[in-house]
Amino acid sequence: MKKGKKLYEGKAKIIYASPEKNFVIQHFKDDATAFNNQKKSIIEGKGILNNRISEHILNSLNQIGIKNHLVKRLNMREQLVKQLEIIPIEFIVRNIATGSLTKRLGIEDGTVLDEPLIEYCLKDDSLGDPIVSPEHILVFKWMSKSEIKIVKKNILRINDFLQGMFRGINIKLVDFKVEFGRTISGAKDDIILADEISPDTCRLWDSLTDKKLDKDRFRKDLGNIIEGYQEVARRLDILHEQSNIRPIKFSKPTAVKIKKNK
Ligand code: 5GP
């Protein structure tokens, strides 16, 4: 499919016009940023992995009735998606306390939460994506009451489903961020999941070792970033197509020679 003109460039993705009306092409870049753009790098192959992982997750969510913008993956780095009016709120769901929550509230890192915690952040890099309350969202008319209700119901279902899916491959879903958008058909309350769900937008820890398999490897200079993402793709069983990504070196046990007592 031939790409049209660039409509928007974000930190990790570019949106291009598509030949089909009401659809756009979402391109996954290898760029990684953290701490409000203060830390930047190119991680070779990250875009390819996020494209595949997000495709897999959004297709699985579609199968359980969570409407989303994905139409189909077009190639290694691109997806055809529905054109949406993106809501300027980042929705965060947390199952285990870490990251900005622990810094903000002094909660001990790794505390398992009794219930999923939802946080809302204004999507504005120049302000550092500040946390806002549902009241702010209503007063400033970023969303209606019924839209907040729909999104809340959706993200709790997404959390339930993804927690189960990841648990099955020995991964803890610690937290994640999602975005929603309004379809441009203009039907009332037609609000669907947008953006991506990938190790860039989730915290994923190995169930046994708590090893980080997500963007925290970049944020915290842990190394082996791409190997973490590959490990997620491998466990999801979606890493069989040929790709220009280096083979996994990450979690292979080292061979240990055991001397037998004579
Ligand atoms: P925290 O608020 O602890 O930094 O992040 C909570 C969760 O939301 C993490 O899984 C993190 O990856 C995700 N998240 C929050 N803000 C952003 C963002 O601006 N971009 C991306 N890619 N993920 C985010």
- The CATH topology of the largest domain is given as D-amino Acid Aminotransferase, Chain A, domain 1
- The CATH class of the largest domain is identified as Alpha Beta
Distance between the termini: 67 Å
What binds here, in terms of ligands, is: guanosine-5'-monophosphate
Poorly predicted runs of 5 or more residues: 251-262
Net shape: globular
Strand content: 25-35%
**Structural class determined from secondary elements:** alpha+beta
Q: Strand count, sense and closure of the main sheet?
A: 5 strands, antiparallel
Helix content: 25-40%
Number of distinct helices: 6
Second-tier CATH architecture of the largest domain: 2-Layer Sandwich
Roughly what is the average pLDDT, rounded to an integer? 92
Round the Cα radius of gyration to an integer and report it. 19 Å
Neighbour order of strands in the largest sheet: 1-2-3-7-6
Count of strand segments = 15
Which H/E pattern describes the elements?
EEEEEHEEEEHEEHHEEEEHH
CATH superfamily of the largest domain: ATP-grasp fold, B domain
Describe the protein:
β2 (13-17) and β3 form a beta hairpin. The protein has helices spanning 46-63, 100-105, 134-139, 145-167, 216-219, 225-235, and strands at 6-9, 13-17, 23-28, 31-34, 39-42, 70-73, 78-82, 84-86, 89-96, 112-122, 131-132, 171-178, 180-183, 191-193, 202-206. α1 packs parallel to α6. It has 262 residues and is an alpha+beta fold. The termini are far apart. It is 26% helix and 29% strand. The chain is globular. A five-stranded antiparallel sheet has the order 1-2-3-7-6. It has a five-stranded antiparallel sheet with strand order 11-10-9-12-15. A three-stranded antiparallel sheet has the order 8-13-14, with helices on one face. Mean pLDDT is 92; it is low at 251-262. The protein contains six helices and 15 strands. The chain folds into two domains: 6-84, Phosphorylase Kinase, domain 1 (2-Layer Sandwich), CATH 3.30.200.20; 86-224, ATP-grasp fold, B domain (D-amino Acid Aminotransferase, Chain A, domain 1). Bound molecules: guanosine-5'-monophosphate.
